[in-house]
Amino acid sequence: MKSHRLARVSEVVRETAANAILFELKDPRVKNVTVTRAEVSADLQHARVFVSVMGSEKEQQLTMHGLKSAAGFIQTKLAKELTTRYVPHVTFVVDEGVKKSVEIARMIREENERMAADRVARGEAPEGETDDADEADGDDAEAEAKDTEKPAEQPGPADGPANRPD
Hints:
With 166 residues, this protein is of the alpha+beta class. It has 2 domains: 93 residues, 2-Layer Sandwich (GMP Synthetase, Chain A, domain 3); 33 residues. The protein is built from 5 helices and 3 strands; from the N terminus they run H-E-E-H-H-E-H-H. The protein has a 3-stranded mixed sheet with strand order 1-2-3, sandwiched between helices. Helix 1 packs across helix 3.
């Protein structure tokens, strides 16, 4: 079968499963679920729907059990959307990609914090600050001198009521 047709069918499966889970499924076990992608076999007989479940391991197992129970319901919704000879048998698979990316981001953040703490302990300037800061101080002093030479402006009618004792 042509790959573009498989991609279109996979997208219909993903969209239908996501809408059914999000809006039509009444199972209280199924919560915090994101449908990330779907893969359909070349013969359109099987579809693997990848889901990301946020929560503890126990909540994840409970949600996957609820999704397994709801697979027939989702296949019925899929049969109404697809105009193929066969309706794919839907199985749900946990997609660990989201959890892994969150874990990698946490590890990178911790490493950056550790490296910054090491730099401070060695007495080096933190990243983003350079030795040009001394030169900028001279420019700031000149700008402040110019600001102090201007007379202070009195508040006008557009600035609101002036705080004057009556």
